[in-house]
């Protein structure tokens, strides 16, 4: 499969001369840095904070490449995966002219980022079992479409999107297919990264915010062809990921066993939550999940949501989301947190039964 990347990229981006810092214009070791107008005396916040971070995160990408089995040149590291989403709109979509496709119910930032960039969004909703409606998607594509966003495992429904469906869409679309795998570490399925060799129009997003427990650091990833990554690096701000975040993620790679244990615990607790909630009379449906949360349909979703708030338990009310009517999205917490949730839900059921 081939893709006419030049046809997809905005003309101003094709001709854009990116900002170039002195740190990105030399290689090797240097002892005296007098290029970036930093405070040479240090920082009251700690050692090294007075210097700008590596603009291309080379050390971090090398470690990620080893773990993911992909060349560092095919990796973008961003300020959360939300930055990658925004950059893709800025690279491929001409404001006021081009369009993108999303498949609701899905992650809300795709539409928000599109609105910020003045890009029209067309919705082709998932099927009733939360899978892609392949005939509707393929027949709904127009010449204006540059991006299709697919979240897998999907947020807020929690399920994996069938791999064959994603591949079929990518093979029949002359634009960019973005697969958001924020929750892939909790799923019993390999990443779509392995499909990059045969699908040059594929971009795979991941994050360190979920399984890796580093949401506060805001480090997201995009995996794509060398040509697409070069475009993203051309448009991104020069120092988009802080030195603190880069060092912290590299350090976290020395604790992969801890992360694996957390994932195992989440999967165990996910089962406990699903089984325990399923025994409550006001709980109508518990949808299968491949993520670190479960979508639960209840009688009186708004009432349940506000009751939990009174009990100081915060969940996500998805009652107003298409195909998720009557649903709450509940993150799998620690065993102790899950007990508090279940106690609150049992307390509600006592009132509901009266």
What structural keywords apply?
14% strand, four-stranded antiparallel beta sheet, 2 domains, 354 residues, Aspartate Aminotransferase, domain 2, alpha/beta
Write the layout of secondary structure elements.
Blueprint lengths: L4 H4 L2 H4 L43 H11 L6 E4 L2 H12 L6 E4 L6 H8 L3 E4 L10 H7 L4 E7 L11 H9 L4 E5 L21 E6 L12 E4 L2 H10 L7 H10 L3 H22 L5 E4 L6 E6 L2 H10 L5 E2 L9 E5 L3 H19 L1
Walkthrough of the structure:
- With 354 residues, this protein is α/β, with parallel strands linked by helices.
- It has 2 domains: 5-21 and 53-241, Aspartate Aminotransferase, domain 2 (3-Layer(aba) Sandwich), CATH 3.40.640.10; 257-353, Alpha-Beta Complex (Aspartate Aminotransferase, domain 1).
- The protein has 12 helices and 11 strands.
- Strands 1-7-6-5-4-2-3 form a 7-stranded mixed beta sheet, with helices on both faces. A 4-stranded antiparallel beta sheet has the order 8-9-11-10, covered by helices on one side.
- Helix 4 (81-92) crosses helix 5 (109-116) and helix 10 packs parallel to helix 12 (335-353).
- The relative contact order is 0.13.
- The mean pLDDT is 95.
Alpha-beta classification: alpha/beta
Uncertain segments of ≥5 residues (pLDDT<50)?
none
Count of runs of 4 or more consecutive helical residues: 12
CATH classification, class level of the largest domain: Alpha Beta
For this structure, the CATH topology of the largest domain is Aspartate Aminotransferase, domain 2
Q: What is the strand content?
A: 5-15%
**How many runs of DSSP E, i.e. beta strands?**
11
Helix-strand sequence: HHHEHEHEHEHEEEHHHEEHEEH
Q: Return Rg in Å.
A: 22 Å
Helix proportion: 25-40%
Shape: globular
Largest sheet: 7 strands, mixed
Ends distance: 62 Å
Mean pLDDT level? 95
Q: Could you say what the CATH architecture of the largest domain is?
A: 3-Layer(aba) Sandwich
Question: Can you say what the CATH homologous superfamily of the largest domain is?
Answer: Type I PLP-dependent aspartate aminotransferase-like (Major domain)
Number of domains: 2
User: In order across it, which strands form the biggest sheet?
Assistant: 1-7-6-5-4-2-3
